[in-house]
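Entry 14. Ran structure prediction on the chain below.
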Amino acid sequence: MLMTLLLLGLAMQNNAVVESNNNVLAIYPSNPHYFQNGDGQPILLIGDSASTTFADVDYGFKTMFDTLKANDINLSRVWVFWGCETLIGNVNRAMVIPYLRTGPGDANDGKSKYDLSQFNPDFFERLRNVCISAREHGIFLQLILFDAWLLKHPFLWINHAYQRNNNINGVDGDPENTGTGIDGQKGFCSLENTKVLEYQKAFVRKTIDTVNEFDNIFYEIANENYYNADWEISLCQFIHEYEKGKPKQHLVMPLDLINHDYDGIKTWDIQELHTNLLMAQALKHPLIFDTDGIGCPDDTTVRKGAWTAFASGGNIDYWDSSFKIDLVGSQFATMRQQLKYLATFIKHIKFWEMQPTDSLVNTGKAFTIASKNEIVSYLPDGGKIVLDLASVKGVLSAQWFNTRNGVFDKEFQVSGGELIGFNAPDDNDWALLIVNR
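Output, structure tokens:
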């Protein structure tokens, strides 16, 4: 499966990719595994995301963004259109929907039916406000236009605006009466259902008209669409075509970037994560280790996953269950602080000049990323490693970085040009920074 997606991604490179000439988040040209901001400065994204940041009308997104900014977190993945006004689950949520409920007639939830030709101004005003607040906090937003996870649950689909009983426009996202919207041939995520697609495109156009001015956004067509890849790519191309006439042109996932379900890099097994991120380097665009769907484990597991992703040339986005209820995220405060330590460490290096380089590790377990003048080895279990520094001449400066408290140990010097052994301070995970000054 990984190889299949790898080939798909390589084929995508032949499609038009957003250039970096319109002051938006773009792919960094000299090292396409990273992003660049609107000023052309290289960016490594470290994210913390919640499912209801935008769509929950009672959610205080500014408070959440305050928490992210305080921890130097610069990315949040945002669900835009869930599909129904009540998101039933562990926590019931009142969701804002892009359409007005005008009737005539009642929908399955007992409220007036939607008119899919009339947009809800409150929805788009809130979306603008979320983008403005994120920009003020220095946060990039991954805007998910449609949620496809919801489609597979009959108890949620029955209240979806595109379910036949819920709109006055004759739009039917389930013409085969499967009880869900997941029919990839004729359902919500399909090209054959032209009436659904017509209204989806109208929503996409309205969304672009609302947020095109922002340079801190990029688009994801759908969360967890397993039903029709062609539908997703078609909408990516539609966005690129529509934005040609707009001031800004944004990255769109999964045409310009592989989405968060990319096979093999959605795992807490750090060796598997490392191996598959290295394989995916062939895609020549940024990869995001996104943990949506694999749970919220203990702080140590999250920290090791984030550092492994960084040392493997990846970006990071943690799906944070604590933000569903607690806007300041106090439940995972320690974990979030440890993400800040990673962000602090990155400020000390020119990561955009670096490439994952396992060949430097002669003995021991470490994930290593390096440039001509800098080497970072992440030791997930501490211990001893031997690095092959035969190609690095001269006197080198080295420091251990404590990933748990964000503190550098005392700097020491080693001579390059040969195999050099390094002993971590203990059996916890550590990062080793080596600089050729």
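Residues 1-21 have pLDDT under 50 and may be disordered. Will compare against last week's run tomorrow.
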